[in-house]
Write a structure and sequence with these properties.
2 domains, elongated, mainly alpha, 3 helices
Length: 100
């Protein structure tokens, strides 16, 4: 006996397939969360086995942040100089404090 798929049965089968897929996704979601939260410790443990400690990583990141701040400061000063060359503004107390 063969089953004839009517549009209703096709829709019902597709709906059941989507529910089954959703259930599988709900099963893998906690596993994915555990995997993602554990990646940091795996990363640091691997680097420590190679000889790179967390404090060295922190020092590198702080130095990069300092360089980034210095670059931003230079860009801001350049923008301020360009703005000052276009617009004439009387010198104020705030500007004298900034330049000194």
């Amino acid at each position: 006996m063969s089953i004839v798929y009517t549009p209703f049965l096709r829709t019902l089968k597709a709906s059941m397939d989507m529910k089954h897929t959703a259930c599988k996704n709900l099963f893998f979601l906690p596993a994915l969360l555990v995997l993602l939260t554990g990646c940091g410790s795996v990363y640091y443990n691997t680097l420590e086995k190679v000889g790179i400690h967390k404090r060295e990583i922190l020092v590198d990141r702080v130095e990069e942040a300092k360089e980034s701040q210095e670059d931003a400061k230079e860009q801001f000063n350049d923008a301020l100089e360009q703005f000052s060359s276009i617009v004439t503004v009387e010198e104020s107390e705030l500007e004298s404090v900034y330049t000194n």
